[in-house]
Amino acid sequence: MTASLDEIAYKMCAGGKGILAADESSSTIKKRFDAIGVESTFENRRDYREMLFRTDEAMKDYISGVILFDETIRQNAKDGTPLVKLIEAAGSIPGIKVDAGAKPQAGCPGETITEGLDGLGGRLKEYYDLGARFAKWRAVIDIGPHIPSYASIIANAQALARYAALCQEAKIVPIVEPEVLMDGAHDIDRCYEVTEWVLKEVFQQLFYARIRLEGMVLKPNMVVPGKKAPKQASVQEVAEKTIRCLKNCVPSAVPGVAFLSGGQSDEEATAHLDAMIKIGGLPWNLTFSYGRALQAAPQKAWSGKPENWAAGQAAFNHRAKMNYLAALGKWTPEVEQKKAA
Ligand code: 13P
User: Fold this and answer.
1) Whole-prediction pTM
2) What's the rounded Cα separation, in Å, for the pair 114 and 104?
3) Best CA proximity match to 6, nearest among 229, 302, 216, 219
4) Ligand 1 contacts CB of residue 293 (under 6 A)
5) Any atom of ligand 1 within 6 Å of the Cβ of 260
6) What local confidence, expressed as pLDDT, does residue 182 receive?
7) Which of 94, 123, 213, 266 has most Cβ atoms within 10 angstroms of its Cβ?
8) In angstroms, what is the span from residue 21 Cα to ligand 1's centroid?
9) Tens of pLDDT along 78-127?
């Protein structure tokens, strides 16, 4: 029997498990590999991702699903097993990034519109046959002196809604990701204001597009000050403002909210999630869908050397476990220090 959209969406965010965002595009993974002195070849990308997907404890106990890039969903492990099968064998769900990236938006200097809707229905059918049961589309909203504009927010919200409708028609759960970037010098309240505006518009467009909220997952940013802001915020302030913003915007029919890490340090991303769960009384399951905050440590430990395979897996396992504990509200700085053996 095939699981329904609602069941898959629920499973993606329940019980402390979260999503591994391993869907870096060719240019992004090259950037990550450059940072650890590894050439971005087809084989190196395969070896690295195979190392993650074969991390037994993490994949079975902490990771509910993995977002893949087009190359990876078609790729085999060194022994010929499709990488998708490794994910499935661990009881985790394979997913696929389907947007074609954020491109400069005409008439909106400094802003982007995410492309990739043309032909998406056909591509989703193929991805379903390859094993994908959920998808991801990322809209990017930057904060600056005169941005974001309504023109950019509404265009991105409509694209997210059209993508989500195509996914649900193809029996694929859409992860709806409107990311408000934390690159600027703005304060936390400006991030709150923009995030609230973006989420309001996104849910309005999801309604117009007749999206079944029970069969989707929201992937938002947390409410944080810009990286260049003169004043940073405490963990508690981030947690309280993020929850307040989400409660004001996200209907309780949505089964799961899985955050992106967006450039926060590994430990910040974990501590923020943990503090939000500790606030309690939330209508949705709250968890992680981290890229950098799950992978920076294993990338460094591995550094492209086969002899570092076990160290890379230990680093990945530790971060996955810390975020799992955070999603249950059971993380502490002490348990963070108990590095994986
Ligand atoms: P980060 O956690 O590195 O922000 O990546 C998550 C993601 O999938 C961005 O689209």
Assistant:
1) 0.98
2) 9
3) 216
4) yes
5) yes
6) 98
7) 94
8) 6
9) 999 999 999 999 999 999 999 999 999 999 999 999 999 999 999 999 99
**Domain regions of the chain by residue span:** 2-336
Are the beta carbons of 322 and 270 closer than 8 angstroms? yes
Cα 179 to averaged position of ligand 1 atoms, centre (Å): 9
Distances (CA, A) of 134 to 54, 195, 340: 21, 24, 30
> Considering 219, 241, 321, 336, which one is annotated as catalytic?
219
Q: Report the amino acid identity of residue 110.
A: G
What is the 256 CA–ligand 1 centroid distance (Å)? 16
For the record, the structure tokens of 181 come out as 């970037």
Rounded to the nearest integer, the mean pLDDT of the chain is 97
Q: Residue 98: which of 65, 76, 122 has the closest Cα?
A: 122
| Positions of the chain with pLDDT under 50 | 340-341
Name the H helices within the chain: 5-13, 26-35, 42-53, 56-57, 70-73, 83-89, 120-130, 150-169, 188-208, 235-249, 266-279, 292-302, 309-327, 333-337
Q: Which CATH superfamily is domain 2-336 in?
A: Aldolase class I (3.20.20.70)
Using DSSP bridges, classify how beta strands 112-114 and 134-141 pair: parallel, antiparallel or unpaired.
unpaired
Cβ 11 under 6 angstroms from ligand 1: no
DSSP state of 146: S
